[in-house]
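Re: export button greyed out
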Amino acid sequence: MEFLLQQLLTGLASASGLFLVASGLTIIFGVTRIVNFAHGSLYMLGAYLGVSLIGLFGGGTLGFWGGLLLAALVVGAVGALFEMAVLRRIYQAPELFQLLATFGLVLVVQDATLWIWGAQDLLGPRAPGLGGATQVFGLRVPTYDIFLILFAPVVLGALWLLFNRTRWGILIRAATQDREMVSALGVNRKWLFTGVFFLGAALAGLGGAVQLPKGSAHLHMDLQIIASVFVVVVVGGMGSILGAYLAALLISLIRVLLITNAQVTLGGVAAWQMELVSMFLVMALVLILRPWGLLGRREVLGYQHSGTPEPMLRPADRSLQLAGLAVLVLLLVLPWIAGPYLVSVATEVLIFVLFAASLQFLMGLGGVISFGHAAYFGLGAYGVGLAVRHWGAPMELALLAAPLLAAGGALLFGWFCVRLSGVYLAMLTLAFAQIAWSIAFQWIELTGGDNGIIGIWPPAWVGSVTAYYYFAGTICVIGLLLLRHFAFAPFGYTLRAGRDSPLRADAIGIDVRRHRWLAFTLAGCFAGVAGGLFAYLKGSVSPEAMALPLSVDALVMVLLGGVQALTGPIAGAAAFTLLKTELLSLTNYWRAILGCIIILLVVLFPQGLAGATAGLRRRGEGQA
Amino acid sequence: MTALLQVRGLSKAFGGVQAVRAVDFDLKPGELLAMIGPNGAGKSTCFNLINGQLQPDAGSVRLAGEEMIGLTPRRIWRLGVGRTFQIAAAFASMSVRENVQMVLIAHHRRLRALLPSAAALYRDEAMALLEQVGMAGQAERACGILAYGDIKRVELALALAAAPRMLLMDEPTAGMAPAERKALMALTASIVRERGIAVLFTEHDMDVVFGHADRIMVLDRGQKIAEGEPEAVRADPQVQASYLGSGAPAGAGWEADA
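Workaround output, generated via the alternate export path:
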């Protein structure tokens, strides 16, 4: 009993930080409909600023609390600045480009933090006067935990007052319900959005700073928390602050229970091994039972409603065919004109082009946004890895396991995902990707855990860099051409029909959900091929192959290239991979440069690279 | 000729409101039946009960003797019941011709084919349909950029593409200019009579209704209050009272939108 109470209190304390960050994200989403991927970065920034400011003011009572508050305000200002400088320019662009801009910010903040504070973890200062332990029902509980447990409801109450008792808060709630109506009533929407970003970012910063006495500030905080925060927000219902609080409690308690009962086994799996998976299982379960979260409302805005109709897809015209031919010739002669390093880079580029194309197939044609496409790339890689490690399979067989495992995973996860739509669907794909990642990370006997599986080398006949380049490249080009062919086949049209008008599609006998499921599986299968080829290129497989950063990379590639252009993923993946490789060799701060480039591109070309060139071509034709 | 569609005792309540109350009617092949009535009379509910969007509380809807209650909209479409939407819902990212081809692909059950090129399938059939509705000249334009009246013509071609036995048309001419309305309805009437397709349509424009319907059915507060040839319905005192409001001179008010 005592033990249980102790766990309960620990869970409540850790829920507080999670809630602060999640409430900020949910407020921003509720009003602006932007899924702020940079929210974890703002949290990290809050922690680092907290350390510095508290250090600057001295660790006294005033210095500590003043430092916390100031850190939150500075982070709020950073968020507001980002909104004014970047997001404000692209509210007219499709929602996904706003997402892309926030990816850019993630990268910039990562490197800015590295540059300012260095790579070392910074230990958090102790809270003056709250350092010891307090007796609660005969238990010794850290006093700061008690503060945290009480702090979250206080913030919740303050937010409630703000949104229900102030004019500004009521306007925000009105904007959450109907943005257009609020601006039609003469409210300056711009400042409302900026204000919302300030508040949301400040809450994230506060969340980061307030957890300092229990932990530290380090460079992995951003992506570490963002997945949890997404889960909390989605489980609570996007836009619902109270929902976020309840979800934070739920998730934290479950995690604490699993960690503290680490040795308890359930069906042969130890509890600690389920700790990472548990959170995402809870999310998947909640979304299946309540598709809009515990307290959320049905999503009215979706990806389909970006205003302008999607452009028509046209088969390649003469100039595009010639360009394609030129690229193929260049790829063919590349080993003669370039060194092994470049050939190896080119292999990687081709693999990522196939990976991105599979995501584009799903997003562009099916209208299904996936935040977790790396899961299927990774499943493909693990298909190879497991076949080699456990059965000693030769490459020719192991490469068959890649699409099989990936398609199997996509078939399973996709069945759940296509039951939802819009952002909720995207979040569920993320949750499943994290589940797959956690399994790879924690099921050490099978997957080798963090170390992964090594020694995956191609056989002698494709053993050289050049031979493997031709081998993998051929498969990728074939895969790409197949996906392109499918887009123009009846199945591709069926997917677009479901995306353009689900109502009409249903009325002509198309089961939209079922076809999305098939597309999900097909896309997963092609991503798996790419993953399998990647495993043999690198000689190893690790959980990184299905981690969140890779899913984000894939999204960036597709969005950079332009979601609606079939040539988009080629341009996007090539540009992204080359840029990343090039920057990586030039500077330690490649992320910041990449992030700035992404943000710049989004602001300059909201239709993506391929979309922009298509626009130029159209303009050229218009003048001719 | 026997009825293609037999509706008997169709009833649906939403909460305490009886939206449709024991409605009976028949529809013969090649016949145009207009369903009219003031706002809230239950026209849309009736439509949605027949096309499978809603499930009735009681009653039966038989197509050529086969019960359709309980079937999904997709299944009902497969049985040969086409529909057009009040707010046009074509596939915006496809050309006019591709829209028709999409329906033909669905009709021929080739939705999942991966090998053929969709643009090459049923091309002539699609062009013939577009020729019929007068849209062949715009076959290559994107549906997303068409004028509204043209989209309505495309809608008609889409509905016809699946070779339906019956068409449900929810305000086929809504949002069109008066001259366009007459032209579209005349076109619809000539095509369906020629093909022997039964049509049930709702419409606010009384010129369209009285100009083209073979029979008219009047609903008011969920109940059928009159049914018959246009002249008989026009003369029905109960219709005049409930539909036009009492005291309106017969004939004059019919011109206005209800």
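The first strand of chain A starts at residue 122 and ends at 123. The button fix ships in the next patch.
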